[in-house]
Specification:
The protein is an alpha/beta fold. The protein has one domain: NADP-dependent oxidoreductase domain (TIM Barrel, Alpha-Beta Barrel). It is about 40% helix and about 15% strand. An eight-stranded parallel beta sheet has the order 11-10-9-8-5-4-3-12, with helices on one face. The two termini are about 35 Å apart. It comes from Kitasatospora xanthocidica. This is Aldo/keto reductase.
Length: about 325
């Protein structure tokens, strides 16, 4: 892998990113600091520059309180001296003691994230999950962070088409910083979570899409199959549910066919299909170990034929 991979523009922002975002949810959870550094080093060496984290990662793990992933990432940036080479995305709204999108909370959470990351500015700041806060309040709070130079661009995860439209309209009307990207749950076995009204709003406004669960909790790697013994992993249960759906096995079969034709792993095909969807800039995928990274990187640049895309479209419909 060389470091000269193409970059893609992130929506209407001036951010230029590698077409695969490295998920930081495993840092400080299933990957300790040493393992996390190794994965980050390998990703950067391959030309990767877009790392996705959140203040809530990984508060669910025993003994953790949240902020572990940001802390690991901050330690890595400091030890490698490469802050300027990396686009850091983090999120606000789902950490228990920093919950919700109220203005005061957004400001306090941003300061916490800046401190843990050890940076002066967050490149991409997501509202992690929509709530009932008026759009006027959170859009204005995000705009203030941009004006203060603490955030470069803002984005939204887990938001409806209606609320996204409302937030964009308010920002436009008031001349405030507008969302440049969305981060929806979207993959070959979960198309309805994005396609339709939300995808239409994103396309209409020139936003970028950065899908999470790009590999459906590991299901699209092909390691969970009908009749196979459960694979020991923190995500096996999440992946298993896709086998029970009619399209699950059909998608695996199509992935196997295309993977064999391309001489790559199923995960690479699943990511390539996603990366080629309208508005998608960079699917998010995480790796616990350096060994898990190569198929993800291959997926960032793999080109599928129209026939292969049609096969996957039909299996996942």
């Amino acid at each position: 892998m060389t470091g000269n991979h193409s970059r893609v523009s992130l929506g209407t922002s001036d951010l230029s990113v590698f077409p695969l975002s490295l998920g930081g949810n495993v840092f400080g959870w299933t990957a300790d600091e040493q393992q996390s550094f190794a994965v980050l080093d390998a990703y950067a060496a391959a030309g990767g520059n877009f790392v996705d984290t959140a203040d809530v990662y990984s508060s669910w793990a025993p003994g953790n309180t949240g902020g572990e992933s940001e802390t690991v990432l901050g330690n890595w940036l400091r030890s490698r001296g490469n802050r300027e080479d990396v686009v850091i995305a983090t999120k606000v709204g789902m950490l228990a003691e920093r919950g919700g999108l109220g203005a005061a909370n957004i400001k306090a959470a941003a300061e916490d994230s800046l401190r843990r990351l050890g940076v002066e500015r967050i490149d991409l700041y997501y509202t992690h999950r929509d709530d009932d806060t008026p759009v006027e309040e959170f859009v204005t709070a995000l705009d203030e962070l941009v004006r203060e130079g603490k955030v470069r661009a803002v984005a939204a995860s887990n938001i409806s088409a209606e609320r996204l439209t409302e937030a964009l309209a308010f920002a436009e009307r008031e001349g405030l910083a507008k969302y440049v990207a969305v981060q929806p749950h979207y993959n070959l076995v979960s198309r309805g979570t994005f396609e339709g009204p939300l995808a239409d709003v994103v396309a209409e406004h020139g936003l970028a899409t950065v899908p999470y669960y790009a590999l459906a909790s590991g299901f699209l790697t092909g390691k969970y199959r009908p009749g196979a013994d459960g694979v020991a992993s923190a995500r096996a249960e999440g992946a298993a549910r896709y086998l029970a759906e009619p399209r699950g096995p059909k998608v695996l079969e199509a992935l196997d066919t295309v993977a064999a034709e391309q001489g790559v792993e199923p995960a690479s095909v699943a990511l390539a299909w996603l990366a080629a969807r309208p508005t998608v800039a960079a699917p998010i995928a995480s790796a616990r170990t350096v060994e898990q990274l190569p198929p993800l990187l291959v997926g960032a640049t793999l080109q599928l034929t129209p026939e292969q895309t049609a096969l996957l479209d039909a299996a996942s419909a």
